[in-house]
Amino acid sequence: MALSLNVNGDRRGFTADPVTPLVDVLREEFHLTGAKPVCREGFCGACMVLVDDRPTLSCLMPAALAQGCEVRTVEGLAANGTLNPIQQALEACDAVQCGMCFPGMVVTLTHLMKATPGATRDDVRSALTGNICRCTGYESIVEAAVRALTAT
Amino acid sequence: MADVSATMDFRRRDAGDKLRGHTRYTVDRYLPGMLHAAVLRANVPSGRIVRLDTAKAARMPGVRAVVTAADAPGTIGIGIADHPLFARDVIRYDGEPLAAVAADTLAQAQAALAAIEVETAPEPAVLTMAEALAPEAPLVHPDWRAYEVLFEGGAREGNVAWEATVVRGDVDGAFARTDVEIIESAFRVGRQNHIAFEPRAVVASYEDGRFHIETSTQVPWGIRNATARLLGVAASQVRVTVPPVGGGFGLKFDLAVEPFAALLARASGRPVRLVNSREEEMLTCLFRENAEIRIRSAVTREGEIVGREAVVLMDCGAYGGEQIFLTTMTAHTLGGNYRLGAVRLVSRAVYTNTAPNGAFRCCNGVYNTFALERHTDEIAARIGMDPLAFRRRNVLGDGDLGATGQVFEGDVLGPMLARMDTLRDAAAPPRKLADGRLFGRATTVGTWFVFVGPSAATVNMNADGTATLVTSGVEIGSGSMMQSLPQIVASTLGIDPGNVIVRAADTDAAGYDVGVGGGRTTVALGAASLSAAQEVRTKLLKVASDMIEAAPEDLVMRQGRIEIAGAPGSGRTVAEVATRAQAQIGPVSGTGAFTGAGVPAMPGCVAGHFIDAIDIPVFAVHDCEVAVDGETGHVEVLSYRVVQDVGRALNPRAIQGQIQGGVVQGLGYALHEEVTIGTNGRVNQNGFETYRVPLALDVVPVEISLYEGAPSIGPLGTKGAGEVPILNVGAAIACAVANATGKRVQELPLTPPRVLELLLDQKPDLSLSHIAEDWADNLVRPHGTTG
Lengths: 152, 787
Description:
The structure holds 2 protein chains of 2 kinds. Chain A folds into 2 domains: 2-76, Ubiquitin-like (UB roll), CATH 3.10.20; 79-151, DNA polymerase, domain 1, CATH 1.10.150. Chain A has helices at 22-28, 85-92, 102-115, 121-127, 139-151; strands at 2-7, 10-15, 48-51, 54-57, 70-72. Chain A is 32% helix and 15% strand. The longest helix of chain A is centred in the last third of the chain and has 14 residues, at 102-115. By secondary structure, chain B is α+β, with helices and mostly antiparallel strands. The two termini of chain B are 50 Å apart. In chain B, 61% of the residues are buried. At the A-B interface, helix 2, helix 3, helix 4 and helix 5 of A face helix 1 and helix 17 of B.
């Protein structure tokens, strides 16, 4: 069926089965391959996007349900190409390794910074329970988030 | 030959795009006209293919090509060529490929798979090593004798795919001494899944009569050669390029999906994309192998290890693959760490009707270190010596013999243990557990080594003062290609590391390389890059010498300039010199090559080994404290410390990131990552729900000390640093849990049910009845004889 989505401020129409996972529409229709369908079961968080400012697992959300919402992907978080504070902190802390989980990490932590600006180290760790990283052992990611939170 | 230190706090250049979601991994590549492929897999662990008919599938909507065993005549393997691309007549594991389809959409390809008519006749299966080694066991490879041998020397027979032995000294004599205690331990570990976030993925095209394979791999040249072998074409007909790789950990050290896509691309004339589903990754991952180990030592009351013998069984699954090679490692891991009077070891790679295993960070070392260190604690307990004191007394030092008789150089482990004492003493004392949980601690040591082997590099000096480094190295996330290599080139040429452009791997552009793994990137590719950069440096200095009117030896390269030493601001920029050179002698470039030095073992000590002695040993000391909940069996890690032998740290922060990440992967292995195989021969854990990897709340910050200065033939004194952090985590946790509970820890992972069984004494002592009592009875043929 004909669907229409607002992604990173762009509205675009396309045809798809309404239950197509949002992550596939983002990647294949919008060519936004930042969100990664790593487990497709909602466990890993690598496909996390913001739907009306709420962190949402795009592998579990049927595309049709995102109609009428503002979808923001990791590609839409660096305004005019400038990394946002959490992206900057992750870069400064040399936190990135293979990078596959980072699109989801960035979305989750961007939301945390906005929703809970006073978040503590433990809050950051709790916030990351839905985002798995296989490379880093998390510490540098937590460190970067704490740094970004204290800088603002 | 550099005027600037190569040690830098240089941030990786790929971080920005990875943080923006712009990086295009193989899974993110979409080519115009690209088809989507899917693979039909067997659903029995053992059987005969009675009928396989693809005619109906080929007529399904959107289907462009179907390929089967008839399209892939070759076999591959390491040591023994036992592995066809598709099951041919015989199915040897659940999940073995039977056919592959390419169609306009993935849904069409999957629909076509369902339309392939397959009739199989089930055969008896051997699902465990005990079953495979039982008398009269069905053979996984009844034709094992007929296989092409790619590497001579391993003993083989029936379900024993490969056997490697070490014998040094009079072991029987040592065990017969009257002044020794004989300590025997047995251990068992399961498989570990890498869970690389990017699954095995490939996009293949057939261009100008050659295959172009874009793939997520650690071994571009390995893929080139193995694909060619399977397809029966010349290796030069295969070009492999590698986009950024979303995690490897050894999973991508072997071929997986590439030949299917290559065949389908040739058959359809269109680019073909094949990406493993997560379920395929879970069920057919080239796991870290499950293993069973018996180790026995003769130790004097004073703590001298006069004799040691061990039998290590490694499950290769249905095909030999890496495990054949990895039998080599036992000599250097289980046979490492300590001075031994006499020693004999046998490692046996055993075929079973299960998914093939493969390489995983510190292959073989992780479980052998677990076994060795737990055994060490059992020895210390038996002779009434403090386990740390026992280690201090026995760790390998300068001039000591390794298991295969190689002579170790330098005192490394001893000072590292002392460094760990300092770290531990400086830390806050362990907090009192007021909640009734049991406190335990352990300090363990580990021996690993750098895989050397051939690597090539070219450095092209550009007239704008930048340099382009061309290698077959792959950035898998470890940062070696993003940090250490450009740093090495930059320091040699006195330019900013940001001005070193690193070319992504392309087998058409760069020379042969063994691959990115085994801690070899900074060492082997680094050495090749260093000598390539040095050639460029020599050429530039010669041209600059004319321009500046000073002897080359009086010139230095720093801060993007070539200047007279001691006269900052004199001379010219590197760009000016490169521009002049380009006009005068043509564009400046340099090439470099590297391979191992080849350290000798003691003659006659080893049989069936691919590496007799280790060129670059790497040592690690780990220390941890745990709290064990007696009610639930849950183990909490309270603290974790690492002293790691890095040779020289080129980028300390990047190495620390590797250590934190490697330790956490090891914590998963030690505590909750569990793979089991059902009676149907299928891996039970098919997703993230059932396979539990560490989460942010599970981990502790690792306290790290980088130990520099140990001898290394690596460039600038480096050793690989990314592989080894996982090495002794299983050991450290197991020893700490044994220390906390007073129980005999013999298996990993230490899941709460397993820990509870230990605490409640419901766990019978591990019995490995398929390991013969007499060491020699475990061998296919006596050590030193030829078959």
